[in-house]
Amino acid sequence: MYEEAKQEKKVRVKCRECGEEVFFMAPKCPKCGIPKPGLSVSEYPKWVKRQVILYAIIFALIVISFIVFGKFFMGLISLF
User: Of 11, 21, 22, 23, which one has the greatest count of Cβ atoms within 10 A?
Assistant: First the structure.
């Protein structure tokens, strides 16, 4: 579906459940309410998957750094 929308330069696709025309990245179908009606997860562009993984890694690094630096500044961890 994504490739069809991209090739034809259209932003509306048919809902995979009810057939209603929706925006290809709509959060839910206005007619039947199914979440992500335009795309299945396997049809998302690769850059979206990579972006989600990148954000997850950045978030994990931030959380870990807060934990480590928090313990360091509280005196629970020392450098020497």
Answer: 22
